[in-house]
UniProtKB/TrEMBL annotation:
Keywords: Carboxypeptidase, Hydrolase, Protease, Serine protease. GO terms for biological process: proteolysis. The active site is at 111 (nucleophile), 204 (charge relay system), 274 (charge relay system). This is LD-carboxypeptidase. Pfam families: Peptidase_S66 (PF02016), Peptidase_S66C (PF17676). Residues 15-130 form the LD-carboxypeptidase N-terminal domain. The lineage of its organism: Bacteria, Pseudomonadati, Bacteroidota, Cytophagia, Cytophagales. SUPFAM superfamilies: Class I glutamine amidotransferase-like, LD-carboxypeptidase A C-terminal domain-like. InterPro entries: Carboxypeptidase_A_C_sf (IPR027461), Class_I_gatase-like (IPR029062), LdcA_N (IPR027478), Peptidase_S66_N (IPR040449), Peptidase_S66C (IPR040921), S66_fam (IPR003507).
Length: 301
């Protein structure tokens, strides 16, 4: 059974911004609020914005309460998480999604918000992996921001990317699943863990040591999450770290050595992750991945 898609946004809809992870001030969010309003949306700033508990947007209780209130409010048609960092896994088990099916709504974010993307997919709902309000106006991010708008408003989102020497050719159809590699590993075995069999997995990360990327891929492979993939999209692995003695492989080479064990198509260089070019992907939406000698294409079915 396919994951359920919330209704596309329309002009006049009310949306909320919350902090489930790191803190964000109203001043930092002002430009994003103006952008959302220019899309015809009415913006509510949750109580977890403009407060701080160390690095978090309030303590766990406040952040949980704010997210719960926005989830339960039928007038709110989408929830944007202001920024990532760390914090969402601390509160996810205390969130009650029992009323979510009465009025499904879009949740959007990436990085630490992979937690929510995966948890919602586990419950059978689509969500958006895309740029967050604090990053709406980063230099070079106009296409990323427009892709988020198109995803929210139900517009077409075909993507094409150039050929990559590590690509694995082929064609596959399956629901999109994935996000931040370290979060996917963190969620393994929890109530937010998701199955990958028959799905198109996408991966990205930032600031990870090369050996740690390999270790996480070993873990994904040993737990069977690579074996029955329909396809794989390899996104940005930004600012990888290395030891004094070089690891000897790039992030893409590390990933490809595990993907090469299987026959599914692989597209390297997909613009998703911790860089300005971070195109929106609808987690749980069925898509077709085509990888040829000329390049790769991703289109929703």
């Amino acid at each position: 059974m396919s994951a359920i898609a919330p209704s596309p946004l329309r002009s006049g809809d009310q949306v909320a911004i919350v902090c489930t992870a790191r803190k964000a001030s109203h001043e930092e969010l002002a430009a994003a609020v103006a952008t959302l309003e220019s899309w015809g949306l009415r913006v509510v700033l949750g109580e977890s914005t403009n407060v701080a508990h160390h690095q978090f947007g309030g303590d766990d209780t406040l952040r949980r309460r704010d997210l719960q209130q926005q989830l339960d409010n039928p007038a709110i048609r989408a929830i944007f998480v202001a920024r990532g960092g760390y914090g969402t896994p601390r509160i996810i088990d205390q969130i009650d999604f029992s009323r979510f099916g009465d009025s499904p709504k879009w949740l959007a974010g990436f990085s630490d918000i992979t937690t929510l993307n995966c948890h919602l997919l586990r419950l059978g709902y689509q969500s958006i992996h895309g740029v967050m309000p604090l990053l709406f106006h980063q230099e070079g991010g106009a296409e990323s921001l427009d892709s988020l708008r198109r995803a929210l408003f139900g517009e077409a989102l075909p993507y094409a990317l150039p050929a990559h020497p590590l690509n694995q050719l082929g064609e596959a159809t399956g629901e999109l699943v994935g996000g931040n590699l370290s979060l996917l590993q963190t969620l393994t075995g929890t109530a937010s863990d998701v199955t990958t069999a028959g799905r198109i997995l996408f991966l990205e990360d930032i600031d990870e040591y090369l050996y740690a990327i390999d270790r996480m891929l070993v873990h994904l492979d040993r737990t069977g999450k690579l074996r029955n993939l329909a396809g794989l999209l390899v996104g940005h692995f930004t600012n990888p770290q290395d030891n004094t003695t070089p690891y000897g492989q790039t992030p893409n080479e590390i990933i490809q050595q595990y993907a090469a064990k299987y026959g599914f198509p692989v597209a390297h260089g997909f613009p998703v992750g911790h860089e300005a070019h971070n195109l929106a992907l609808i987690v749980g939406r069925e898509a077709r991945l085509t990888v040829s000698a000329e390049g790769a294409r991703v289109a929703y079915v």
